[in-house]
Amino acid sequence: MLGFSAQYCVYSLLEAMTKVLVDLGVNDKQETGGTSTAMEVAALTTFLEGLIETMVIGELTPDTYTSVVAMDSG
Q: What average pLDDT values come out for the chain (74 residues) when binned by 10 residues?
């Protein structure tokens, strides 16, 4: 059985009301110790830490990766 493991995670943040692209980035799984599942959380965390200084974030609607959904309950 073959599995799937992404090498890169491309993350974009869009402001919903104005539809302006706020940030865009690429993470390599080597940045997260070679774990592709950790890339999504690392990318989102990095972007949010950068944005929290400059804008108020009222609502976040990520995709449905279980690792990102678990961030909210953790």
A: 70 86 85 79 83 82 70 58
47 near 60, Cβ under 8 Å? no
Q: Is residue 26 classed as helix, strand or coil in its secondary structure?
A: strand
| Cα Rg of the chain, angstroms | 13
- The boundaries of the domain holding residue 3 are 1-56
Total domains present in the chain: 1
Amino acid at the residue 20: V
Q: Are 26 and 9 in contact (CB under 8 A)?
A: yes
Asked if the structure places residue 64 within a domain, the reply is: no
